[in-house]
Structures are given as C-alpha cells and as structure tokens.
Amino acid sequence: MKPMQIDFVSDVVCPWCVIGLKSLEAALANAADVVTPQIRFQPFELNPDMPRAGENVGEHIACKYGADPERSRGTRDLIRTSAAAFGFAMNTGPDSRIWNTFDCHRLLHWAGLSGHQAALKMALFTMHFSDGANLGDPEALVTAAASVGLDPDTARDILASGAYADEVRHDEAFWRQQGISAVPAIVIDGKYLITGGQPVETFEKAIRRIAAGG
C-alpha cells in the first residue's frame, strides 16, 4: 500500500472543515486497501484579528460576507444536514459566537508532538459547534486538552505563555505562501490540492487516482 501524507489546513471555527474532515476520513477508510495515510493538521485563522471576546456569528457573517438572515439560515441548514450525515451535531444559530482561534492552534501544535492532534482537533470542533463552548476561555481549552489525554497543567502553562506562537505563525505564513486562502484545503503528498468539504466519493476517487500514480 502507498504511504500518503495529508496536510489538512483548517480552522476550528470553520463548519465546512468539520464536514470535510469527516468526509475525508470516510474516504480514507474506503481506500484502506490502497493507502496508509498520515494526517497532519495545519493552522489557518479565518479571522486573525478577531478579539478575544469574539463576535456574534450572525453579525460577523453579515459584515464579512454580506449575507442576509434568510441566506444565512439556509446555509446553516445545509451545514447542519451535511454534518448530521456523518453523525456530527451542529448546534449553532444566529446568536452563537465566533472566537479568536490562535490559542487553539498553539495547543494543536503541541498536541501534534505527542500524537494527540487529531483527537484534540475533534474535541475543539465538538466544543465549538456542538456544545457552544467559549474557545476564548483558556480553561475551556484546558478541558479540551485533558479530555483527549493531554496534561492539563502543561496545557494551562502553554496558554499562559507564548509557547508555540512562532511555530504557528510560521506554519500559517507557509500555507498562505502556497496559495491557500480558504479552508478546508487538503494537500496530499505536498503537491495535490483538494479544496472544500467534498463528498466522500470525490475524496475517494482522488485518493485512488493519486495512489495509482496519476
């Protein structure tokens, strides 16, 4: 079987990133006869200037994308249905909040050093989209880290310091230099790019084609 390196560039407040990850995982399970994948989660901030207190998501989307309430409602319904197909509960609404995620990415970088990155990524997705947790609250992030087997005291120390800030900024800059401007962006073996929360069949077809060398 072919080893396959997958860089999953995403943000933890991006709903399509959840859907894209779930779809990719299903596709990789289907293609387990041809590939042995290794997924690395790479940082991308949709809103690097977001204040720590966050913003109302409805107001944020209206300001950033010009979406009216009816259009936003339709998008939320599509996202909710798409996520539910993978067993993921999207419980967000017009009064939900969106947060600054730089500290989340610092913790994810640390988690990657011990093989806990995938578990922490999903824990943060769940806290934000399913539970409505405050990702700007360091103690909420400590709880997420502890829930996947990471040491809470170390997590707290990291959040209270500038640990891994340079590494995250370096990685963010690298992916932007590669032309990544929207997420999810899935980069396979450093040269094949798939963008968006694609259907399982689309991911699987691409994976099999790449594994076959074309």
Low-pLDDT ranges: none
Structural class: alpha+beta
CATH topology: Glutaredoxin
- The secondary-structure element order is EHEEHHEHHHHHEEH
Main sheet properties: 4 strands, mixed
Provide key terms for this protein:
single chain; 214 residues; alpha+beta; Glutaredoxin; 4-stranded mixed β-sheet; 6 strands
Short note summarizing the structure:
By secondary structure, the protein is of the alpha+beta class. Helix content is about 50%, strand content about 15%. It has helices at about 15-30, 55-65, 70-85, 100-110, 115-130, 140-145, 150-160, 165-175, 200-210, and strands at about 1-10, 35-45, 55, 95-100, 185-190, 190-195.
Explained architecture:
This protein has helices spanning 15-30, 57-65, 69-84, 102-112, 117-130, 138-147, 152-160, 165-177, 200-211; strands at residues 2-10, 35-43, 55-56, 97-98, 185-188, 192-195. The model has no long low-confidence stretch (mean pLDDT 95). α4 packs antiparallel against α5 (117-130). It is built from nine helices and six strands. It has a single domain (2-211), classed as Glutaredoxin (3-Layer(aba) Sandwich). 51% of the residues lie in helices and 14% in strands. With 214 residues, the protein is α+β, with helices and mostly antiparallel strands. A hairpin with a 3-residue loop joins β5 (185-188) and β6 (192-195). Strands 2-1-5-6 form a four-stranded mixed sheet. A two-stranded antiparallel sheet has the order 3-4. The protein is globular.
